[in-house]
């Protein structure tokens, strides 16, 4: 059962249970990389708020390849300021909000260490959206082309600072400066980064058990990943 974070009768407030929206980002322009890569909406920039967040994501954002991006389970992509700072130091270049193709840049929270299934309230309840963490971001060739960094997919994968995809539980409007509060956190404890870097059989079993108990709702793309992890356990 989800533990309520920072509410009366619930667990104590974690240090990473409250943050701030640094920027809201949407597609600035559709780029066409040509060849097998083709067009992409990864060029995202900060936009002025308030911005509507609906079931399929940020108003004004563009998803080109629906096979691998977007949809109800990956409606919003968030990346943390602290994670971006790691890459700023590594690459010795500025990485403004939207540089990772994210919709939300979040300060004060370790976004890549969000627990799968935890819920975030942005802004005031009833006005701001309620989001649920679903999965890590898997880097692709378009992401590498956009960054202009050699072997970017491999480097991003090895570091494991993936950011988090989220589904929209309740729509709303969001602006830079809005508070982000974790209002519930599942007890299984598997984070997006831990799952992305490990695919541990014990974590797979924990996620599946939480899903079957109705504590979380795994996206369909997790099914084969969990099956493979459990098969390794024999």
Q: C-alpha Rg, in Å?
A: 17 Å
Order of helices and strands: EEEEEEEEHEEEHHEEEHHH
| Weakly predicted, low-confidence segments | 4-15
Report the portion of residues in β strands.
25-35%
| CATH fold assignment | M1 Pyruvate Kinase, Domain 3
Q: Would you identify the CATH architecture? A: Beta Barrel
Can you say what the CATH homologous superfamily is? PK beta-barrel domain-like
- Principal-axis shape equals globular
Distance between the termini: 28 Å
**What characterizes the major β-sheet?**
7 strands, mixed, barrel
What is the strand arrangement across the widest sheet?
A: 2-9-8-12-11-10-14
Count of runs of 4 or more consecutive helical residues: 6
Number of domains: 1
Structure description:
The protein contains six helices and 14 strands. The protein is an alpha+beta fold and 234 residues long. It has a single domain (3-197), classed as M1 Pyruvate Kinase, Domain 3. The strands form three sheets. The chain has a seven-stranded mixed beta barrel with strand order 2-9-8-12-11-10-14. A three-stranded antiparallel beta sheet has the order 7-6-13, with no helix packed on it. 41% of the residues are buried.
Properties at a glance:
3-stranded antiparallel beta sheet; 7-stranded mixed beta barrel; 27% strand; alpha+beta; 6 helices; M1 Pyruvate Kinase, Domain 3; 24% helix; 234 residues; globular
Set down the secondary structure blueprint.
Blueprint: E1 3-4, E2 18-27, E3 31-32, E4 39-40, E5 44-47, E6 51-54, E7 57-58, E8 76-80, H1 81-91, E9 104-107, E10 119-122, E11 130-136, H2 141-147, H3 152-159, E12 164-170, E13 172-174, E14 179-185, H4 192-198, H5 201-212, H6 222-232
Parallel strand pairs: 8-9
Antiparallel strand pairs: 1-14, 2-5, 2-9, 2-14, 3-4, 6-7, 6-13, 8-12, 10-11, 10-14, 11-12
């Amino acid at each position: 059962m989800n533990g309520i974070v920072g509410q009366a009768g619930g667990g104590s407030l974690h240090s990473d249970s409250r943050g701030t929206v640094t920027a809201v980002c949407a597609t600035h322009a559709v780029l066409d990389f040509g060849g097998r890569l083709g067009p992409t909406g990864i060029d995202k920039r900060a936009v002025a708020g308030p911005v509507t967040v609906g079931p399929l994501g940020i108003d004004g954002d563009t998803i080109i390849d629906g096979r691998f991006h977007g949809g109800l389970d990956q409606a919003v992509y968030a990346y943390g300021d602290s994670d971006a700072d790691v890459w700023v130091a590594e690459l010795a270049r500025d990485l403004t909000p939207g540089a990772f193709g994210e919709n939300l840049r979040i300060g004060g929270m370790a976004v890549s260490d969000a627990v799968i299934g935890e819920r975030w309230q942005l802004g005031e309840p009833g006005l701001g959206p309620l989001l649920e963490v679903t999965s890590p971001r898997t880097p692709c060739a378009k992401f590498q082309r956009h960054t202009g960094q050699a072997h970017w997919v491999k480097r991003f994968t090895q570091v494991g600072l993936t950011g988090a995809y989220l589904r929209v539980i309740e729509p709303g409007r969001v602006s830079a400066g809005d508070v982000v509060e974790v209002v519930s956190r599942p007890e299984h404890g598997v984070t997006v980064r831990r799952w992305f870097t490990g695919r541990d059989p014990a974590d797979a079993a924990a996620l599946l058990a939480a899903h079957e108990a109705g504590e979380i709702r795994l996206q369909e793309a997790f099914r084969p990943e969990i099956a493979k992890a459990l098969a390794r356990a024999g």
